[in-house]
Each structure stands twice: as structure tokens, then as C-alpha cells.
Amino acid sequence: MDVSAILAENASKYKSVTVEKDIPLEVDAGLLTVTDINPIDEESYQENLEEHLQSIARDGVQSLFAALFTLPTRPSPDGPLAQLPEPKYQLPRAKPLPKPKPPTKWEQFAAAKGIQKTRREKRVWDEEKQDWVNRWGRDGKNKQSEEQWISEVPLNADVDHDPRKIARDARKARVAKNDRQRLQNVSRSAGGDSGESRKSEIESTLATSRVSTASMGKFDKRLEGEKKPRGVKRKFEPTTASAESEKKSSLAIISRMDSDAKKTRREPKEEGVLNVRKAVRFASKGKGSFALAGKVGPKSAKGKKGRR
């Protein structure tokens, strides 16, 4: 039976799985990308643009799938998965690289002393329980002195001495200290030395409080190592100056006076406009028009009667 005609028909209907071009396609399986640098066929591009683009996309996808099927695989519940290699191309970052964090005080001390950082295990061996227990957290080793049923009390201890409370307060103090140091490191990394700023703030407050007494700090006791406060040095204009500088200073004074006068100057009201309600309120001292009419009426009547 001759099947050459059927094979020829299928070959014309379906393209080959092997993509052959003048310039081989560059496949990067790590990024799942295919780069085609072959020149565009102008004739097919202008004749049928959609078909030309589909043909190029088909060749690229076929090359990518052929590269994926050559990679090693690993089983999974959804089927075999290909293990992608490292990408060949380095894509640019969307954002700039993060700035390195400044070292903390402990890191600076460890670097100066040559101390190597060692990671402490989360679980430790308990000799009494003969089991591994947590170092911190629930049922942690650090709470052993707080939860033990018997504790040693010193001979000179007070009557209300509570070993559990003392151990708990000491543990909470350590936690608060670590949190405070963490906040200081965050503040230092955000910019500026918090210690120096705090020192300058204290010195400024101390200098202000020194001159807040009746004697302006003349008879106050000095602290040990306290620096003498520096006063404000007065600056005087030179007695002789050029005519140009004197002219500028005079014009500046006149312009300042003019601007102050404009601020205090009121805009003139429009003529022929009278606020009747305000005038009545002012004349009656806030009592209203009826009080004003009653006040004016008797006076006018008495005046007329007296003239008769």
C-alpha cells in the first residue's frame, strides 16, 4: 500500500517541529523567552500582516517548547515539571538597588573585636525534664525561674520578697531594653545620629534654664564638666560705608514702613451705602429700634412743652 500521498498531504498541512532559519533563534529557557533577529520578509509582511506575525510567533513558541522538553523534570501531583536553568539574560530592575543598612552599635563593636556571629538554637536541652524545650516563648527556658515551685530567698530579703515577680520584671526589662535599642538602630539608619541630636537638645535646654532665674544664672552652681555658655555676639555696622550701601539701607527702611502702613490701612467704604441695622444698634446700645423710638419720643415731647 502506497501512503506517500497521505504523508505528503499531512506534511503540507502541518509544519515541521524543527525550526530552521538563516540565523538560529536565541532561546532562554530560564526566562521563557525567544529572540528572533532574522530580517523581516517585506513581501510576506505587506501581503498578509496577520499571517506573517502568526508564523513568526509559531516558530518562536515551537523552539521554546523544544528546549523545554530537553530539560530535566521532577514529578509532582499535577504531572512532571521541568527544572528551569539559570537565565542567560540579565533584565534591568524596575526599582533601584536598596541602600545598604548602616551597621548597628553591636555590629560595629563585633567588627572591632573580631567577634563572629553565631546563630543560637531555638531549642535547648532541659536536664530536669530530660527533653528539648523552647529557649523563648511558651514554656521557654527563660521563664524557668518564674514557674519553678520553690525558690531560694536571701537572708536579708524583705518580708514581701517575691522571687517570681523579680524574675519576671528582670525579663521584661531585658525585652524593653532590646526594643529600645532596636528603635535607636532604626532611627540611626533613617538618617542622623539620635545620640548627637539628643545631646544638643539637652545642652540647649540646660542653657535656657540657666538664664531663667532672677540672677540670669549668675549664682547658680555649675555641673562638673559643664561648658561655659556662649553669649550672643553683637554685630555693629561699620561707621564708614559707601553711598550705595547707605542708599540701599535707607530704601529698605522706607519700603518696610510703606508695607506696614498698607497692612494697617483700611479700605474706604463706598459713598451712599449705609448699614441701617448697625447704625440703630450703635445708637440704641444694642437694645434695638423700639428702645430707641421710646427713648427719643418722651424727650422730644418734654422739650416742646417747656418751650411753650
In short:
With 308 residues, this protein is mostly helical. The chain is built from ten helices and six strands; from the N terminus they run αββααββαββαααααα.
Task: Write the element-wise H/E pattern from the N-terminal end onward.
Answer: HEEHHEEHEEHHHHHH
Strand residue percentage: 5-15%
Q: What's the Cα radius of gyration?
A: 46 Å
Numbering strands along the chain, what is their spatial order in the largest sheet?
A: 1-2
Walkthrough of the structure:
The chain is mainly alpha-helical. The protein is 46% helix and 6% strand. It has 10 helices and 6 strands. A two-stranded antiparallel sheet has the order 1-2. Strands 3-4 form a two-stranded antiparallel sheet. A hairpin with a 6-residue loop joins β3 and β4. The relative contact order is 0.03. About 2% of the residues have low confidence.
Strand and helix layout:
Blueprint: H1 4-13, E1 26-28, E2 33-35, H2 42-47, H3 49-68, E3 73-74, E4 81-82, H4 105-113, E5 123-126, E6 131-134, H5 144-147, H6 163-190, H7 194-210, H8 243-264, H9 276-283, H10 289-307
Antiparallel strand pairs: 1-2, 3-4, 5-6
